[in-house]
Amino acid sequence: MGTVVSFDVRGGDPDAVRSALDEAVAGLHRIDEVFSTYRDDSQVSRLARGEITLDACDPEVAEVLELGAEAQRLSDGWFSTSYAGSVDPTGIVKGWSVERAARSLAGVPGVTGVSVNGGGDVQLLGLPGPRPWRVGVADPLRPGGLAAVVSAAGLDELAVATSGTAERGAHIVDPRTGRSAVTDLVAVTVTAPRLTWADCWATAAFAMGSREGLAWLESLPDVEALLITAGDEVRCTGGLAARLG
Predict the structure, then answer these.
(1) What is the mean pLDDT of residues 206-213?
(2) Would you list the DSSP string of 8-65?
(3) For residue 12, what are the contacts with CB-CB under 8 A and spacing of at least 6?
(4) Average pLDDT over residues 7-29
(5) Phi, psi at residue 36, to the nearest 5°?
(6) Handedness of CA 11, 17, 23, 26 (dihedral sign)
(7) What is the DSSP string of 73-92?
(8) Which helix (H) or strand (E) holds 181?
(9) Among residues 125, 86, 98, which one has the least CA distance to residue 24?
């Protein structure tokens, strides 16, 4: 789906890690074949056109749609797996697939740390060495600059996901109107243990706008966030400072 994915794996037997990397990459290509809305022959595209049923799809399709339904429920409808009346799990499948790839690599014997970056959304597991994983958050108003640096110190797993207009323009849809979300925000970065959810929550909060989005993110367990408005105002959840460094 046009996303570049990079891997950083620490520890483990090199041959075993290489084999696991090959499997992870093949798995991501398979996810593209199944879920891409840009491929007419993908299972999701055929499902949206009514050519096949959900039971005829790979089990992962039902799994992702169930996760999307849970995200829709928890966000009071601000996250959705439908677009223009058709099924479209694009908003959740990237985070889910990157997280799944990271966890498969973390299961290789001897591996101590894994970082998988899918288009700027990152799943961190374990430890890279004496120092913790750190992720830079791009400043949407100052190209090439950083708005913050998130640290995974003290955590076995941490995900960082950003939704905004800086890289892809106005691509986030307001599920209430079916049109591009018009808010005071230019970027929302969310940290959570799992990238599946961090990606969903960043998207939903962006569609909500800074005031409602920040209040909602504050209500979610194990979630912290950084919100940047078009007026260059930075708003943060109460516990974000503990995640910076």
Answers:
(1) 94
(2) EEEES-HHHHHHHHHHHHHHHHHHHHHH-TT-TTSHHHHHHTTSS-GGGS-HHHHHHH
(3) 108, 109, 110, 111, 112
(4) 98
(5) -65, 130
(6) positive
(7) HHTTTSS-SEETTEE-THHH
(8) none
(9) 98
8 token code pair: 């950083």
Q: Which pairs from 28-36 meet CB under 8 Å and 24+ separation? A: 28/97, 28/98, 28/101, 31/60, 31/93, 31/97, 32/1, 34/58, 34/60, 34/61, 35/1, 35/61, 35/64, 35/89, 35/90, 35/93, 35/97, 36/1
Q: What residue type is 226 in one-letter code?
A: L
Residues 79 and 200 sit within 8 Å (Cβ to Cβ)? yes
Residue 156: phi, psi to the nearest 5?
-85, -20
**Structure token pair of residue 21:** 């990397």
Over residues 59-88, mean pLDDT? 94
**Cβ contact 122:22 at 8 Å:** no
Question: What separation in angstroms does the CA of 237 have from each of 111, 156, 215, 219?
Answer: 33, 21, 8, 10
Average pLDDT of the residues in 104-124: 97
Give 165's DSSP letter: S
The percentage of residues in the chain with a pLDDT greater than 90, rounded to a whole number, is 87
Structure tokens at 54: 């959900």
Tokens standing for residue 215: 């209040």
